[in-house]
Design a protein that fits this description.
two-stranded antiparallel sheet; disordered N terminus; 4-stranded mixed β-sheet; 6 strands; alpha+beta; 5 helices
């Protein structure tokens, strides 16, 4: 029987206030960790587990997030209130914006297990979670009409790292503006270079 040596590394990031817990097995050379969930709170907690724990999470019907995998979308989209006819487009946007990694902030580079490896650029750090909801939608200091803050009372980034909360906030924005928050063609001349409208 293979012994499991669990090494829990506690690291507190001064930039994000996140606590990361990692588990590594004695008999595995490369990390087989995946993000199971990002728990909201004063300091968002990112939980990662080894392969055996991932199998256990799947057996308990917990969602296991991996880059490029949105097989969980029907379950969470329904819970967040998204109509079924929007799920295909919603999935495309999630894959484009975050790759399906709920713990991702703008500029984060992640691996296949949604573990953050580094930050590639710092210009879009307010973009948050699955739908990369921008700070203008939750930070009243940037936008006095910030719908997510005004309607959901979520006025900081950390709660939006929770996948269900992020999808609920995204649905609120969708109800106000359709797909506009994720369509650079609606953002004005400054973003025209990102607009790829089909003729």
């Amino acid at each position: 029987m293979t012994k499991l040596l669990a090494i829990f590394l506690l690291s507190v990031s001064s930039l994000s206030g996140a606590i990361n817990l990692k588990a590594e097995s004695e008999d595995t050379k490369k990390s087989d960790a995946v993000v199971v969930a990002t728990l909201p709170g004063p300091a968002a907690v990112q939980v990662t587990v080894d392969h055996r724990e991932r199998q256990l999470a799947k057996a308990k019907n917990q969602i296991v997030f991996q880059h490029g995998d949105i097989s969980w979308l029907p379950q969470l989209a329904a819970q967040a209130g998204w109509p079924e006819e929007t799920w295909e487009k919603l999935g495309q946007i999630i894959l484009r914006e975050s790759g399906g990694c709920p713990n991702r902030r703008g500029g984060d580079v992640v691996n296949e297990n949604c573990e953050i490896l580094r930050v590639s650029e710092w210009n879009h750090r307010s973009d948050t979670g699955l739908l990369q909801i921008n700070g203008v939608n939750y930070d009243m200091t940037r936008n006095k009409w910030a719908a997510v803050c005004r309607d959901m009372k979520i006025c900081t980034q950390e709660p939006l790292l929770d996948p269900l909360t992020n999808l609920k906030a995204g649905y609120l924005l969708y109800q106000y503006s359709g797909w506009g928050p994720w369509d650079p063609c609606t953002w004005g001349p400054k973003y025209a270079h990102r607009c790829k409208k089909k003729d």
